[in-house]
Amino acid sequence: MAIVRIKINGVMQQHDVEDRTLLIHYIRENSRLTGAHIGCDTSNCGACTVLLNGSAVKSCTVLAVQVQDEEVTTVEGLSGDFNGLSPVQEGFRQQHGLQCGYCTPGMVMASTALLRENPKPTEDDIRHALEGNICRCTGYEMIVNSVRWAAENGGGK
Amino acid sequence: MIPALFTHVPVTTIKEASDALNHYGDDAKLLAGGHSLIPLMKLRLATPGYLIDIARINDLRGIREDKDKLVVGALTTHEQIENSPLIRKYAPIIGAAAKLVGDPQVRNRGTIGGSVAHGDAASDLSVALFGANASFVATGPNGKRVISAVDFFLGFWTTALNQDDVLTEIHIPYAPSTNWSYQKFTIRSQDWAVVSVAVSGSNIILGAMGEIPLRAEKCEQAIASGADFEQAASFADEGTSPSSDIRASADYRRHLAKVLVFDALTEAKKRS
């Protein structure tokens, strides 16, 4: 067991967990933040994407003990001027970038990371940045449009 | 899926890492970014009892110039390599290969050392580094050894690293910014290579055509003796032993190797 401290969405968390605890389980089960989802659980689908020190990572393939004292942002940590939604979240709403919504938290976090680094991405940039996120219902056209909308309406806040 | 129980052993110096490997023996594995090891542990294909976490050894980070070569710390991530001006200037094939590893999230965590030490024949960086005549620095209890790419890859997931070695640096001789190409064929955008080819100068290296990255000797000889690209590429699968798996049959890989060697030679020539 290890006492693992991680700042999640600006709040320092501290939990006594097994060394083998994955970051996604620390976030969902110990910190009770269930926005990040477990999809494939094999680092393919991207539903578990969160920001680690600002970079998008797949939290099913990171151990909680690896990120001792580091900073994580989950979808719950985003906020903005659109009735509390961030520009990326509002973009997905406006442009119908989701249907079932299971992949959406991961899509939103990967898109947020992209727009923070590259505020004016081309379509190729967007598709390259979302290579690690799989959607099985909406299709990618409207997701790309959602990210574009966000780029024009506030970016990666 | 949750890995089998293990004990996490964080270390902050290369010496501590080497000592810990010595102490725990075969039951220990090094952990860097974890993007090869953690998936294997989740599938219980690997069940080490001790994970020696080297991610906070600052000496293992960064890319620097050293006379006629670049020295890349083993913990340097694919993302850092992809975006490094030094790599772009002196070893562009390595940056091109790094950009094709997995997806952005994987590139943010995965490290060059971890990718190479894993010893997968389809590893983009291993194939490109072999093409670039790179060598690998192993630091063990008796000091450092520099291992050339040709001596480094020994067999399926097996390298010349000993149990108590830490892969600390990768040395990449300054490569021409011309006459290189890295070709990767995948079924899905973020996938492992079905087959990959690195052409750099007179080197032609094949990925996923056997248990380790392989030199396409016949192709190199054909080019050296004046064959055109199509003739040379027709020898691409000679001496290889590709496997059949969920991604492709061995026959398809043999076909792809010829196509990709031709494409790589053609693209490399365009750059010269």
Overview of the molecule:
- The complex is a heterodimer of chains A (157) and B (272).
- With 157 residues, chain A is an alpha+beta fold.
- Helices cover 32% and strands 16% of the residues of chain A.
- Chain A is built from 5 helices and 5 strands.
- Chain A has helices spanning 23-30, 87-94, 104-117, 123-129, 140-152, and strands spanning 2-8, 11-17, 49-52, 55-58, 71-73.
- In chain A, helix 2 packs across helix 5.
- The longest helix of chain A is centred in the C-terminal third of the chain and has 14 residues, at 104-117.
- With 272 residues, chain B is an alpha+beta fold.
- Chain B has helices at residues 14-24, 37-42, 78-82, 85-90, 92-98, 104-109, 112-118, 124-131, 149-152, 217-224, 229-233, 250-271; strands spanning 7-10, 28-31, 50-53, 63-66, 69-73, 135-140, 143-148, 153-155, 158-159, 166-173, 180-185, 195-200, 203-207, 214-215.
- In chain B, the strands form 4 sheets. Chain B has a 5-stranded antiparallel β-sheet with strand order 4-5-10-6-7. A 4-stranded antiparallel β-sheet of chain B has the order 11-12-13-14, with helices on both faces.
- The longest helix of chain B has 22 residues, at 250-271.
- Chain B is globular.
- The model of chain B has no long low-confidence stretch (mean pLDDT 96).
- The chains are: A alpha+beta (157), B alpha+beta (272).
Give the helices and strands, then pairings.
The complex is a heterodimer of chains A (157) and B (272).
Chain A: E1 2-8, E2 11-17, H1 23-30, E3 49-52, E4 55-58, E5 71-73, H2 87-94, H3 104-117, H4 123-129, H5 140-152
Chain B: E1 7-10, H1 14-24, E2 28-31, H2 37-42, E3 50-53, E4 63-66, E5 69-73, H3 78-82, H4 85-90, H5 92-98, H6 104-109, H7 112-118, H8 124-131, E6 135-140, E7 143-148, H9 149-152, E8 153-155, E9 158-159, E10 166-173, E11 180-185, E12 195-200, E13 203-207, E14 214-215, H10 217-224, H11 229-233, H12 250-271
Parallel strand pairs in B: 1-3, 2-3
Antiparallel strand pairs in B: 4-5, 5-10, 6-7, 6-10, 8-9, 11-12, 12-13, 13-14
